[in-house]
């Protein structure tokens, strides 16, 4: 339990923190026992320990929080012909494609005919379809 933490880490925990940690460890031990695992040697415990130590250090003003940066590419806008080409390349009828996109068949017809244009989320799905040539598709019956 708490004794698995280094003495230094234990000193940084409040009584409430120790109580929460004990409950967490107990719960994890129970789950590990259900699947026949040895929690005391698991990497999960080490990961949790490291995460808790980082959180304590961060709260005390030491160290820095982890930052993950995502780059979101601009959405490409497709023409009616490109939409039709993507749909046929994926092997979908207008009906199946409409189901896949969550729109009506009339909407797909309007897109492909150039009378209306899809919005951002649809362009993102079209982008995924156009770039994943080997993707397996679930086809509605």
Structure description:
With 141 residues, the protein is mainly α. The chain is built from seven helices and no strands. The chain has helices at 7-12, 15-34, 43-59, 80-89, 94-101, 105-113, 120-131. Residues 1-8 have low confidence and may be disordered.
List keywords for this structure.
141 residues, disordered N terminus, elongated, mainly alpha
Count of extended strands: 0
Q: Count every helix, treating DSSP H or I runs of 4 or more residues as helices.
A: 7
Strand content: under 5%
Averaged pLDDT? 77
Query: Any low-confidence stretches, pLDDT <50, length ≥5?
Result: 1-8
The structure class reads: mainly alpha
What is the CA-based Rg, rounded? 26 Å
List the helices and strands and how they pair.
Elements: H1 7-12, H2 15-34, H3 43-59, H4 80-89, H5 94-101, H6 105-113, H7 120-131
Helix pairs in contact: 4-6, 5-6
Short description:
The chain is an all-alpha fold. It has seven helices and no strands.
């Amino acid at each position: 339990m708490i004794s698995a933490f280094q003495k230094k880490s234990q000193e940084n925990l409040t009584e409430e923190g120790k109580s929460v940690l004990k409950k967490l460890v107990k719960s994890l031990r129970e789950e590990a026992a259900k699947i026949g695992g040895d929690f005391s040697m698991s990497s999960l415990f080490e990961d949790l320990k490291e995460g808790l130590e980082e959180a304590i250090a961060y709260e005390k003003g030491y160290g820095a929080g982890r930052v993950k940066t995502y780059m979101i590419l601009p959405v490409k806008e497709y023409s009616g012909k490109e939409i039709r080409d993507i749909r046929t390349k994926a092997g979908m009828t207008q009906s199946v494609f409409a189901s896949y996109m969550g729109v009506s068949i009339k909407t797909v017809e309007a897109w492909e005919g150039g009378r209306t244009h899809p919005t951002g989320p649809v362009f993102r799905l079209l982008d995924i379809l156009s770039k994943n040539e080997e993707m397996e598709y679930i086809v509605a019956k």
